[in-house]
Amino acid sequence: MQSKSPSISFFRTLAALTLLGLAASAQAQVKTGFGFCYVQDLTSFKTYASPVFPVSWKLGEELPRAEALATEFLAVVTAVGGTGQKNCYPPNESKAVADSERAEVKRLGTSTFLQKWQDLAFTPRPWDPAQRSLSGNRTRYFFCAVGDPDLRKGAATSVFPVEVPAANPSAAFTLAELYTEEFTRDVLPGLRLSAVYPSCLSFESMAEAQHGRAVHKKVFDGFNLTFVDLSWRPTARLPDAASAAPVRRSSTRPVPASTAGKQGPGTVATPISADGLGATFGALTPSLSEALQLGQRKGVMVVDVTPGGAAAAAGLKPLDVILEFAGQKVSGPVELQTIVASTRAGYRAPLQVWRKQALLNISITLSASVQVPVPVAMPALTPSGPARPLPRGLIGAQVTKLTPALQQALSAASTDGVMVTNTVPGKAAEESGIRSGDVILQALDQPVRDLNDLATILGQVPDGQTVMLRILRGGRDLDLPVGPIRSDTPALPVGRTYAFAAKIVPPPVVKRFCHMHVQTTQDFFDKGVRSNVFELNADESEKTALRVMTAFIARANEAEPARWDSPARVYCEASHCSGISTQRHHMMTSFCSADRQQADDMLIASERGKSLPRIEFNPK
User: So what's the pLDDT on residue 487?
Assistant: First the structure.
C-alpha cells in the first residue's frame, strides 16, 4: 500500500470516480451485473459497507448510476447514526470481480488505516431504465485540493457552485477533469507543491462538498503543518458538444488506493478498464519531438507497455509515437483516450507509428480488461513548477523515473537514473547541451537512482556553480558540465568552485522516544507484537524509519524465526510512520515524540485499543 494518509487515500479513490468522463451510448443498452457501496467516516476511522448486490444500468452511464446508488446507501448509513463520504464502485458484469474489489477495500481500510468495518444490509430501490432525462440545469458543488504529506502542506479552494446541464449526466465529471487540469497548470507552481494527486471534485450537495473539504483540511491543519485556503476559481467551460449531450467514453472503475497515481513520477494516471490498450502514454513536448525527429508530426509517445496487454501483443515499444489510431489523427493523450473509448473491445484497429525515424503500420486488438494509464500532468524540475519544491539546484529540466521498458529501450544497465523529457529554454540544462532522452546517471560523482536523489544532490550546490553530470546518450556514457545552477544561496567568490566550497550537509540528529508494532492483516485483531518505548537518536527521514523498523523485525523474529516480513518502503507523516511488506502484507506502525511522557501515554492508549505481546527493543 503506497498511500500516505487517509485524506490522500480518500482523494485518490474519489478522484477516480469524480474526474473521469461518463460513458453514454446512443442506444442506451441496459446491462445487468453487480456492485457494492461504502461510506468512509475519516474523522472516526470507520467504514460502513454494503454487500455485493445485483444492479442494472444503462451502458455508458455506469458512473451516474454508481453515484445514485451511493446516495441511497448513504441514507442507510445515516439511519443507523453514521456519516461520512459516500462511494460506490461502478457496476461490473462479473460478481467475482465485485467480490474481489470489495475485499480489497476492506483489507486496505482495516489493515492500513486501522479503520473499524461495519457491514450493513442494503438493497437498491427499483430502477426504471425508461426514466426520461431531466431538462434545464442543476447545481453541482466543486472544490479543488492538493496535499503533500512529505512537506506537511496542503491547500484547497473554497466550495463553489456551478450550473451544469441536467440532460447530460457527464457534464459535472467533464468539468471536474477540466478544472483539475487548470488547477494543476495554474495553481500548483505558485504553491511550490509537487503534483501529489491534485483533484477538483464534484458533489451533489453543498453539505457533501463542505464535508469533503473539511476532511482534507483536518489532515494538513495543525502543529508543524501548513494549510493554505485558496480563493482561486477555474475559468474552464464545457465544450458545446458536452453541454448538449453526453460524450461517448469508456466505462471506468475507481483506482484502488494501493495503486492510484503510482504509474510513475510525474504522472497522474486515469485508468480505463474497458477498451484498453495496456500501455502508458505521455504528451510530446517540443524538445521530445525534436529528439525523436518527428518534424511537424503530432502524436503521443509510448512511455511503458504492460506485459501481456494489447499494446505488447501488437509490438508497441517505449518511445514509439502513435500518429494515427483507426484512421484518426492523434495529437495528445486525451484525444487518444477519446478515440479508444469510442472503439468497441475486440476491434482490430490500424495504427500508424513513428519508430526510429521511420513510419510503421501495425494493428492492435483492443482488450476489455487492460487498464490504460493516461498522463494528464507532468510536473517539471523548474522554478515555475517543480516535481519537488527545490529552493536550490534548479537546472531547468523535466525528468521522469526509468521504467523497465524505458531501460530496455534506452539501453540502460538498470532502472537507476532519471530520463530528461524536456528542457526549459534559456536555463542551465538546455544551454549546457542536455537533450530530451538523456538519462542522468550521476551528479557530482554520486549515483542518481531517482528524482529525489537528483533533487537532494543538486539542492546542495551554491548559486552560479557548474556541476558535472554523467549521462547516458545513444548507448554511451558522457560526462557533461551543466550550469550555472540557480538557487537561493549566494554565489561564491570568483575563483572558488563547488569542489572545495560546498559539502553535503546531513539531516540533523534529533532525540525522540518511540514505540512500534507489527501485525498481520489477516486475523487483524489478535496477531502481532509491540515494542517498549525506546530512545532514538537519529534523523527524521523515512530511510532511518525503515532501518529501525527492519531492526525491530529482526528482533521480533528471534523468538519466532521468519514469522515477520520487513516492509519494503516506509511512509511518515508528522510523528507517525507506517510500512507494509509485499509478501504477506505484514503492517508496521511507529509513533515518536520528543516528550517521553507523551510517548508513554500513546503506548498505553494503543494497548487499550489492541493488546499485543511486548518485546524489549533498543536500536543502536
Answer: 53
What is the C-alpha R_g of the chain? 25
DSSP 192: T
Do β-strands 534-538 and 358-365 pair in parallel, antiparallel, or remain unpaired?
unpaired
Nearest residue to 140 (alpha-carbon basis) of 156, 169, 161? 161
What does 232-261 look like in DSSP terms, one character per residue? Answer: --------HHHHHS--------PPPTTTTT
Cβ count within 10 A of residue 316 = 23
Cβ 85 vs Cβ 42: under 8 Å: yes
Angle at 549 between CA 547 and CA 555, to 5 degrees: 105
Write phi, then psi, for 26 (nearest 5 degrees). Answer: -65, -30
Instruction: Measure the CA–CA gap between 350 and 322, rounded to whole angstroms.
Output: 11
Quick one: pLDDT at residue 26?
A: 32
Pairing of strands 328-329, 321-325: antiparallel
Q: Which CATH architecture has domain 397-501?
A: Roll (2.30)
Residue type present at position 379? P
Q: Side chain identity at 108, as an amino acid letter?
A: L
Say how far apart CA 5 and CA 567 lie, in whole Å. Answer: 17
Residue 481, preceding bond cis, omega within 30 degrees?
no
- Could you tell me if 155 and 146 are in contact, meaning their C-beta atoms sit under 8 angstroms apart? yes
Record: fold of 279-365: Pdz3 Domain (2.30.42)
- The C-alpha atoms of residue 419 and residue 438 are separated, in whole angstroms, by 6
β-bridge partners, 361: 352
DSSP tally for the chain: helices H, then strands E: 16, 30
Q: Where in the chain is the domain with CATH 2.30.42.10?
A: 279-365, 397-501
How would you classify residue 264: left for phi > 0, otherwise alpha for psi between -120 and 50, otherwise beta?
Answer: left
For β-strands 137-148 and 116-119, DSSP reports them as unpaired
Q: What is the largest CA-CA distance in the chain?
A: 81
State the pLDDT at residue 21: 31
Average pLDDT of adjacent 10-residue blocks, the chain of 620 residues: 38 37 45 90 80 87 82 89 83 84 80 74 88 75 83 84 82 84 81 69 85 78 71 80 39 33 30 51 68 80 76 84 86 72 73 87 70 32 32 64 72 83 73 81 86 77 76 81 62 39 53 88 63 90 86 90 83 75 78 88 76 86
From the list 196, 212, 194, 209, the residue with the least C-alpha distance to 161 is 209
Beta bridge partners of 153: 148, 226
Closest alpha carbon to 45 in 204, 240, 215: 215
Cα–Cα distance for residue pair 322/329, rounded to 1 Å: 9
Dump strand ranges (E) for 149-299.
Answer: 153-157, 160-165, 199-203, 226-230, 279-283
Q: Is 295 helix (H, G, I), strand (E, B) or coil?
A: coil
Local structure of 340: helix, strand or coil: helix
Q: How high is the pLDDT of residue 288? A: 67
What letter would DSSP give residue 135? -
